[in-house]
UniProtKB/TrEMBL annotation:
This is FKBP8-like protein. The keyword Zinc does not apply. Residues 108-169 form the PPIase FKBP-type domain. It holds the Pfam family TPR_1. SMART domains: TPR.
Length: 368
């Protein structure tokens, strides 16, 4: 059977909690065939027959072979109507654990855990990732995807296979938001970065068009949250870039424009911040905070530009700049009256000089 050690052992937790597994280190990797298959030891009617794997069973009763080696199987009992959870999102489930070989059923319980972080049995991590919100599924799991080779004495014997009935109730936001609320911004950025890697376009090529669009929209939300975390750390340039990436993916995302505006203002780009806030108002015209912030920033920007004009005016004109009132135009100075006496005197002097010059030229010509 293809198995791995599913869990980290926590002595403080209930030993029957599926979030607590065997503490041995001898588990096989996922690619190793195991000696026992959970299908070979189950009670009659608890799982698919050998014919089912050949496709002869009713399609509604078919199991999904999660790992491709019949060691972890999943069958939908009640279809879900919501989306699938993403890695690093917190999920809430109802779980019923059965041990068919022993004829034992453990008490039903409600669990919350972060998907993909190894907080619970690996069977749950793998199966829940393939469920939709509201879905109820049956999971047949090999022993090492649950409590391992040593089991959990005295309640779970060694190498005990399980049949699980899982109902996915809801999913919550990625782990990054948890750290953000705790003001652990560096850790939230790390978590968001992990989610962005999972949501890289090349990793989503096999998804259908609808799922791909949903994934890209979720990536936009993660980028927006990433921008907020960078902003809290006063890393305004990365905050700006993350907000812009979010807008590229989801142009109608109001919060992304707000994050962009906040970052641009801190970077000294008030005009660009105003543009971003106006874009946000196009998406949410009744947002009172946005209206207030835009009004504040517009006034600040106006006063800043006025101060700049006064500074440049002093640099050019000195302490006595021209009067630029009256719609920005300088008042024309009053024309002085024409002094005809001065003009006449200048004309007479010019006439005398011209006559003397002519007399001198004529005399020079006669002598030659």
């Amino acid at each position: 059977m293809d198995t791995t050690e599913p869990l980290k052992h926590e002595d403080t937790q209930d030993k029957m909690d599926p979030a607590v597994g065997a503490s041995g280190d001898d588990g096989d990797s996922l690619g190793t065939a195991a000696p026992d298959s959970p299908m070979g030891k189950q009670a009659p009617g608890d799982g698919p027959s050998s014919e089912a794997s050949e496709g002869t069973q009713d399609p509604e009763d078919e199991y999904t072979d999660i790992l491709g080696n019949k060691t972890l199987l999943k069958k939908v009992l009640t279809a879900g109507t919501g989306p699938r959870p993403n890695m690093q999102e917190r999920v809430k489930i109802i779980l019923l654990q059965e041990m068919p070989e022993l004829g034992t059923t453990l008490p039903e319980q409600t669990l919350e855990f972060v998907l993909g972080q190894g907080d619970v049995a690996q069977a749950l991590d793998l199966a829940v990732a393939l469920m939709n919100i509201g879905e109820k599924a049956q999971v047949i799991s090999g022993y090492q995807y649950m409590y391992g080779e040593v089991g959990m004495p005295p309640d779970v014997p060694a190498k005990t296979n399980f049949k699980l009935t899982v109902t996915l109730l809801e999913k919550k936001k990625e782990r990054g938001n948890y750290y953000f609320r705790r003001k652990e911004f560096e850790r939230s950025i790390n978590s968001y970065s992990f989610a962005l890697k999972v949501l890289e376009p090349e990793n989503l090529r096999k998804e259908g068009a609808d799922n791909l669009q949903k994934a890209l929209e979720f990536r936009a939300i993660v980028q927006c949250n990433n921008s907020a975390a960078f902003f809290k750390l006063e890393a305004y340039e990365p905050a700006r870039k993350a907000a812009e990436e979010s807008i590229k993916l989801l142009a109608s995302h109001t919060k992304a424009y707000i994050r962009l505006g906040q970052a641009q203002e801190k970077l000294g780009n008030a005009d660009k911040a105003i543009v971003a806030y106006k874009k946000a108002l196009e998406q949410d015209a009744t947002n009172k905070w946005l209206h207030s912030e835009l009004s504040r920033l517009t006034k600040v920007n106006h006063n800043k530009k006025k101060d700049q004009r006064e500074m440049y005016s002093k640099m050019f004109w000195g302490s006595n700049p021209p009067d630029m009132s009256n719609s920005g135009k300088a008042k024309p100075s009053k024309a002085e009256p024409v002094n005809w006496l001065k003009l006449g005197g200048l004309g007479f002097i010019g006439f005398i000089l011209t006559g003397l010059a002519s007399f001198g030229i004529q005399r020079y010509l006669n002598q030659s």
